[in-house]
Amino acid sequence: MNKQSPLRRFWKTPLRRWAWLFLGPVTAAFAIGFVWPFLQGIWLSFCKFKLIKDAKFVGFSNYAKALTDPSFMHSFWYTALFALVSLVLINVLAFAVALALTQGIRGSNLFRTVFFMPNLIGGIVLGYIWSMIFDGILSRYGTSILMETKYGFWGLIILMCWQQIGYMMIIYIAGLQAVPGDMLEAAKIDGANKWQTLFRVTIPNVMPSITICTFLGLTNGFKLFDQNLALTAGQPFLIQADGSSIKTTEMLALNIYNTFYTSNSASQGTAQAKAVLFFILVAGLGLAQLAFTRKREVQQ
Amino acid sequence: MKKILALILCLAMVFALAACGEKPAAETKGEENGAAAGSVYWLNFKPESDEVLQKVAELYTSKTGVPVKVVTAASGTYSQTLTSEMDKSSAPTLFVVGTQAGVKDWADYALDLTGTPIAQELNTDAYNLYDENGKLVSIGYCYECYGIIVNPDLLEKAGHSLDEIKNFETLKAVAEDIHARAEELGFDAFSSSDMDPSSSWRFTGHMANLEYFYEERDAGGWTECPATLTGAYMDNFKNLYDLCINNSLTDPKDLATGGHDAENEFKTGKAVFFVNGSWEYGAVSEAVPNATMIPYYCGVEGEEKAGLNCGTENCWAINGKASEADQKATMDFLVWCVTDPEASRMLVDSFGVMPYTHAAESTNGFLAAANEYSNNGCYVMDWATNYQPNVDDYRAALVSALNAYNADQSAENWATVVTAFVDGWATQYQNANG
User: Fold this and answer.
1) For residue B219, what pLDDT is reported?
2) A243-252: string of b/e by CB count within 10 Å (b at 16+)?
3) What is the mean pLDDT of chain A?
4) Which value does ipTM take for this structure?
5) Residues of chain B neighbouring A131 (CB-CB closer than 8 A)
6) Taking residues B397-414, what's their average pLDDT?
7) How confident is the model at residue A4 (pLDDT cuts 50, 70, 90)?
8) In A, which residues are within 8 Å of B256 by CB distance?
9) Strands B136-140 and B129-130, how do they pair?
């Protein structure tokens, strides 16, 4: 038995012999639904087109246009700032809530459910609900969330915290429950206080959760679209002296969408180039962040 | 156990594949018919007309057997939907190209309608759109008018009458008087001028037309989008806009995110004036049977002779890249729509009026008012607004500037509005054509 080559052993296992049949549909779906559109998208970023079937190759001019577009640069920095602030706030708060709800207080399950629920509401609906809430408050002061960039920014942060904290909390709770009890006990016997236990024992043990949550937080922050569209849609604009305008609360994904659909008919290629740049950025950031936090995970 | 699992998974997959592969019987049948006699696929852009169009389509199919599919793009997403639908193998055979910007984008995909049976049914050339080579890209299937809708009964209750209002000065006097006595009267002058996407077009698209129209008139008429505006009539736009926001039910500071439902305010007798168009007649006339429409009086010299803003964005274009059978089926369908008494009645009741020789008569009171102005020798304010370059971007910037102005009516904020209005036009023209 043991002397058979690995390939023969593979084909002898009856279920494995059918591997291609089980992998086939998924591979096909992945190729049709992801790989092909992705490759086509990259190709189109080098083309000028109105309809995809009439695309004409134009080289790198779309990339040149995208990189010299001030609104794209503005939305990049705005998105980066948003992603950073929301990443920190969401994770710190979610971890705190998770910690509080693993202390065995009464009604923990109810609290967990309630905190998780905002995550079940779609982004567009959330955006409109929160725009009403914010305006209910801001209209008392004769203003609105559409009037000031800072209102739009913090409004979106509050919205995202409200939506995401519950989700991240669930991941952290799972991590916290997996911290070995004997380690905590040993720390207690060694005379560690609560802060020391938290930073020296608990947090190193939940690093895998922190890795996944920062990854999700970062990519969510960069890819944010629905909430941005429904809450402010880029308003207020900064009207430049030459009549052009910068949408001060427009994030990257919305900027790409607006370039594709609402600008002139020659801009679809530019939007496509922006989307490719956007992909490289998000993928690069995500991978870098994964590599960074993986190093800090401990083996249990 | 594993064998059973494998078996179940195999079965599940076979069923899934079979379901993908099999075509429902009805669909296949439809396609066969379509291949032989052609079929019609109308991409409609007016959600409010969808119900009627579906009925008309059904009627046509039941009479002739030719399949007619009507798909309506969700509000504000017509250009996105058209772009993606035109890319499909079963693209729309009939679509809407309503503006000069649309002609620029879609002329290559449209059939030249010059001299075709549907063009011969028209009773006016006024609403047709041509590209720069003189190709007839799309033809108007209805026209509309907009202005200020008035409730004459409330006006009389306030001790005024419609005959008083002859120009901006008299309109202003009436509106300010009503606004000052709003509490005592129980109603106000203007309904709310919300700036959210469901309402802002009434100002950035329609009221803005008064500025464009008078500029166009000074220039002797536009035939294509001008590269720049002079902004000569911005003060007139400001006159009417200020009157509207400052003599209304809602504090101008609260307009940015909307939510006041101006139509309902007008219907329930809370406001005398309502800035909107002829398509509102059906909704409004039941509650306010005497409702009528007056022009945008804005302080321009000789405006006593102004009429309503008449024009259209509703123009049919036939897909020139569709198969010949589909093109012919579409053409036959269109001719039937404007000649068949039953179908044209249904369409006219939804659209207001159709400029075709054999179409049914209009019952729309606001369009009747528009005709009355014309018959009395007043000039029609045509829809110069249709030339707005990169219309969505241009209007979005204007909304943002107006929001700032509504919150604080300072000279600086108005200067920003003027920048967005006048310089924004030039910038967007460059973006669209440069």
Assistant:
1) 92
2) bbbbbbbbbb
3) 87
4) 0.75
5) 257
6) 92
7) low
8) 135, 144, 146-147
9) antiparallel
- Tell me the pLDDT tens digit for each residue of A130-150: 998 998 898 888 788 888 889
Task: Sort strands B136-140 and B144-150 into parallel, antiparallel or unpaired.
Answer: unpaired
Q: Which of A72, A139, A235 to mutate to test the interface with B (most CBs of B within 10 A)?
A: A235
pLDDT tens digits for range B331-375: 999 999 999 999 999 998 888 888 898 888 888 899 989 888 988
> In whole angstroms, what is the distance from residue B21 CA to residue A230 CA?
39
Quote the tokens at residue B147. Answer: 């202005």
The CATH superfamily holding the domain A63-294 is: MetI-like (1.10.3720.10)
Asked if the Cβ–Cβ distance from B256 to A146 is below 8 Å, we say yes
Do B246 and A133 contact (CB within 8 A), yes or no?
A: no
Q: Do B257 and A144 touch (CB under 8 A)?
A: yes
Interface of A with B (CB under 8 A): 14-15, 18, 21-22, 25, 50-53, 131-132, 135, 139, 142-147, 233-237, 239-245, 247, 258, 261-265, 267
- Look at residue B195 and give its three-state secondary structure: coil
**What ranges do the domains of chain B cover?**
37-143+313-357, 145-311+371-433
- The mean per-residue pLDDT over the stretch B195-221 comes to 92
Q: What is the pLDDT of residue A181?
A: 87
Tell me the one-letter amino acid at B37: A
| Interface with chain A: mutation pick from B321, B393, B427, highest number of A CBs within 10 Å | B393
List B residues 379-418 in contact with A (Cβ-Cβ < 8 A).
390, 392-393, 396-397, 399-401, 403-404, 407, 416
**Neighbour count for residue B357 (Cβ, 10 Å):** 12
Structure confidence at residue B323 as a pLDDT band (50, 70, 90): very high
CA angle, A96 then A288 then A172, to 5°: 20
Residues of B in contact with A237 (CB under 8 A): 396-397, 400-401, 420
Q: Which of residues 1-20 of B touch A (CB under 8 A)?
A: 2-3, 5-6, 9-10, 13, 16-17
Superfamily for the B145-311+371-433 domain:
Periplasmic binding protein-like II (3.40.190.10)
Find, among A219, A253, A213, A211, the residue nearest to A233 by Cα.
A253
Residues of each domain in chain A carrying CATH 1.10.3720.10? 63-294
Q: Which residues of A266-278 are buried (b: 16+ CB within 10 A; e: fewer)?
A: bbbbbbbbbbbbb
Ramachandran angles phi, psi of B126, nearest 5°:
-65, -25
Judge whether residue B26 has pLDDT over 60: no
pLDDT at B1: 58
Rounded to an integer, the average pLDDT of B384-400 is 89
Query: Among partner residues B80, B400, B427, which is closest to A242 by beta-carbon distance?
Result: B427
pLDDT surpassing 80 at residue A25: yes
User: Does residue B24 register a pLDDT over 60?
Assistant: no
Given a cut of 60, is residue A263 above it in pLDDT? Answer: no
What does pLDDT average to over chain B?
87
Whether B37-143+313-357 and B145-311+371-433 share one fold: the answer is yes
Fold that domain B37-143+313-357 belongs to in CATH: D-Maltodextrin-Binding Protein; domain 2 (3.40.190)
Q: Which of B83, B419, B433 is the closest to A241 by Cβ?
A: B419
Task: Look at B6 and A262 and tell me if their CB atoms are within 8 Å.
Answer: no
Q: Decide if pLDDT at B138 tops 60.
A: yes
Q: Does B420 lie at the interface with A, CB-CB under 8 angstroms?
A: yes
pTM: 0.79
pLDDT greater than 50 at residue B32: no
Contact, A155 vs A228, CB < 8 A? no
Using pLDDT thresholds of 50, 70 and 90, give the confidence band for residue B7. low
**CA trace torsion B327, B333, B335, B339 (10° rounding):** 180
Q: Six-digit token pair at B242?
A: 């200020």
